Amino acid sequence: MRHILWELDGTVDLALYTVETGGIGVIAEGTHEFYYYPIKWDSDGTLVYGKNWFNEKAERLKYLYK
User: Fold this and answer.
1) Do residues 61 and 49 touch, judged by C-beta distance below 8 A?
2) Among residues 9, 18, 28, 53, which one has the fewest Cβ atoms lying within 10 Å of its Cβ?
3) b/e burial code for range 27-45 (CB count within 10 A of at least 16 → b)
């Protein structure tokens, strides 16, 4: 099996990249049981994102960015 240097061992985290500073902040860390994905960014700064389990259970969450 070939590995990519930046592969996260099968996990998908949700991170926020700040263009002005080049900084990256992890909002939610995925595991081998579930992963996160962005859904929408509201005008008030709220990031709506999903959490999906590999057993097909899903959850919708929010993160208010200030």
Assistant:
1) yes
2) 9
3) ebebeeebbbeeeeeeeee
- Residues whose CB falls within 8 Å of the CB of residue 19, separated by 6 or more in sequence, listed in order: none
How many whole angstroms separate alpha carbon 45 and alpha carbon 63?
A: 8
Task: Decide if 2 is inside a domain.
Answer: no
Whether 35 is in a domain gets the answer: yes
d(CA 16, CA 5) in angstroms, rounded, equals 21
Helix (H, G, I), strand (E, B) or coil at 36: strand
In this structure, what token pair is assigned to residue 47? 């990031």
pLDDT digits (tens, 9 = 90+) for 14-42: 888 888 998 888 888 888 888 888 899 89
In a domain, 40, yes or no: yes
> pTM above 0.90?
no
